[in-house]
Design goal:
337 residues, mainly alpha, two-stranded antiparallel ribbon, 13 helices, Lgt
């Protein structure tokens, strides 16, 4: 029997339906934007710049996320190409979204004369808060859940409210709310990022790398609990290695979600985080060793495109941007968050 208790449609106007999934993603993007704007003010960066980043980055992220997902699930779409465009039914991949957002951001940031790594650092908390909120769209759609569990585990062990427990009852079987696990992990990552960005030793780009490292750690362990993972058929030694890394989850009473052996034996969103963590750590080490005078997070952020800065409302100039960053650096705690 069907057990989708929450209506995925907020309201309809004629044939036009507004769905919770899209609304929640929009709220996540908006909150992320506000965080970036607030932090950007410390460096004299106008809010119009971050609004442009969102207006270009959000569509790019959605398109890339869908392409990423469809590419690995092509058998489900090749006979009905119209389904590719039905994004409101779910089926996007976070890592695909990040790829699309980063590509568009690199292009825009360079055109505006900013250093990409400095802007990426400012946007990192916004990215994770968008993911934290966006996962609740999966909750409404009753998707991205984990393997079977018991009602008592959800109610008595996790002490979850009834509206979550009931929504995790999929066709008569209760499932792990992996959307919630990832949302809570993202909240923890957000808190750590807020702490890290106040450290004087933090260098340019390292907050962005920290975001990838921390998120990937959580995603690696949560992904194996899910039952809808994108996967591929890889060597047995690699599958065994990944399963060995995941073993600590069994000590907490978790089991891996079902993965059809005919579909694959390696979850992509477990393998990819391993590479991301390694690349991010190595990159931070090499950048400190190879780049002389690597800027600190608290250093001023100045656009090299004077014409762009001069055209902004409020006469935001290079000098004002530098002065703003200096006054709001960690050495001036009275003007920080």
């Amino acid at each position: 029997m069907g057990t989708l208790l929450l209506n995925p449609i907020v309201f309809s106007i004629g044939s036009l339906s507004v769905r919770w999934y899209g609304l929640i993603l929009g709220v996540g993007a908006l909150v992320g934007l506000l965080l970036a704007i607030r932090e950007g003010k410390r460096f004299g960066i106008p809010q119009e710049f971050f609004m442009d980043v969102l207006l270009i980055g959000a569509p790019s992220a959605i398109v890339a996320a869908r392409i990423y997902y469809v590419a690995f699930m092509w058998d489900e779409y090749k006979n009905d190409l119209w389904k590719v465009f039905k994004i409101w039914e779910g089926g996007i991949a976070i890592y695909g979204a990040l790829i699309g957002a980063i590509i568009s951001a690199v292009i825009l940031v360079r055109r505006r004369g900013y250093n990409f790594w400095r802007i990426a650092d400012i946007c990192a908390p916004g990215l994770i808060v968008g993911q934290m909120i966006g996962r609740w769209g999966n909750f409404i759609n009753q998707e991205a859940y984990g393997g079977p569990t018991t009602e008592s585990f959800l109610r008595d062990t996790l002490h979850l409210p009834s509206f979550i427990v009931n929504q995790m009852n999929v066709e008569g079987t209760f499932h792990h709310p992996t959307f919630l696990y990832e949302s809570l992990w993202s909240l923890g990552v957000l808190i750590v990022l807020f702490i890290l960005r106040r450290r004087k030793s933090l260098r340019a780009g390292e907050l962005f790398f920290s975001y990838f490292i921390l998120y990937s750690i959580g995603r690696f362990f949560i992904e194996a609990v899910r039952t809808d993972s994108l996967a591929f058929q890889g060597p047995d030694w690699l599958a065994s290695f990944i399963n060995g890394l995941w073993t600590p989850m069994t000590w907490l009473g978790f089991e891996q979600g079902a993965l059809d052996p005919a579909y694959g034996n390696i979850r992509i969103s477990q393998l990819l985080p391993i590479f991301i963590i390694i690349i991010a750590i190595v990159s931070m080490i090499l950048r400190r060793k190879m780049i002389p005078n690597l800027p600190r997070y608290s250093d001023p952020i100045i656009s090299t495109k004077a014409s762009y800065m001069d055209s902004l409302p409020g006469e935001v100039t290079q000098e004002k941007a530098a002065a703003s960053a200096k006054d709001t650096s960690p050495e001036h705690p009275d003007k920080t968050e």
